[in-house]
Amino acid sequence: MGDATVANETIRPQEAAHFGALAAEWWDPKGSSAMLHKLNPVRLAFIREAIDLHWAGDIHSVKPLAGKSALDVGCGAGLLCEPLARLGANVTGVDAAAENVAAARAHAEGSGLAIDYRHGELGSLGLGQFDLVTSMEVIEHVADKQAFVSGLAAHLAPGGLMVLSTPNRTLASRALLVGAAEALGAVPKGTHHWEDFVTPEELEELLVAAGLTVGTPKGISWSPTKGLHLSDDLALNYIVTAQRA
């Protein structure tokens, strides 16, 4: 399920409308974004390890991003921005749906978190570069994927870290993430378009073309006993790091 909507030049207008309409339920763990609430701890575990490995910091620190800036693109109502802020980062979140940004600002204020949320096209906001750039479950909703990835790369500071996650385009993902998930109401109908899913090989090509080197992707899998968890199986969904070449 997509975390959000992104730049007007790359995102389809109907995608922005789809996710904007869900804004009121972003923070309801039993609402239309329930799957994201289950996915978030899995992604955060990967991100925390990636942060520790990249900057060789104190693995026991509760604020490993202290003194660092973070940008989350397609931030929705801030489900990732808020944990990044709690990890110590100075966080900026960008989304193309004004409804999402309003919901994000309200929730951050209620949580006592100072997060800079921006509505609009990433490339026109003049945000500069960031130590950490994230975009979770967004690229599959983007029309011009190379332009989107290049835009992310342009906002990555030298020595910085990028983390992306997205569904894989496999028969398994079509059956489970589109067919079963929507039929069972796990995600709202119309959320996923399987033909827009990106394989790990395709994403690596996009990242390399943008001047980045790519880490080894990790799968996000599901089982009846473990629920959603990190694994070596990339068939459904995967998460990966990148940095400047």
Keywords:
245 residues; alpha/beta; Rossmann fold; disordered N terminus
Q: Describe the oligomeric state of these chains in a short phrase.
A: single chain
Query: How many runs of DSSP E, i.e. beta strands?
Result: 9
CATH topology: the name is Rossmann fold
Mean pLDDT: 85
Strand content: 15-25%
- Name the CATH architecture: 3-Layer(aba) Sandwich
Low-confidence stretches: 1-8
Shape: globular
Biggest pleated sheet: 9 strands, mixed
The level-1 CATH class: Alpha Beta
Number of discrete helical segments? 7
Kindly report how far apart the N and C termini lie.
30 Å
The tally of structural domains comes to 1
CATH 4th-level superfamily: Vaccinia Virus protein VP39
Reading the helices and strands in chain order gives HHEHEHEEHEHHEEEE
Share in helix: 25-40%
Structural class by sheet pairing and helices: alpha/beta
- Based on CA atoms alone, the radius of gyration comes out at 16 Å
GO biological process, one term: methylation
Catalytic activity: a 3-(all-trans-polyprenyl)benzene-1,2-diol + S-adenosyl-L-methionine = a 2-methoxy-6-(all-trans-polyprenyl)phenol + S-adenosyl-L-homocysteine + H(+); a 3-demethylubiquinol + S-adenosyl-L-methionine = a ubiquinol + S-adenosyl-L-homocysteine + H(+)
Keywords: Methyltransferase, S-adenosyl-L-methionine, Transferase, Ubiquinone biosynthesis
Pfam families: Methyltransf_23 (PF13489)
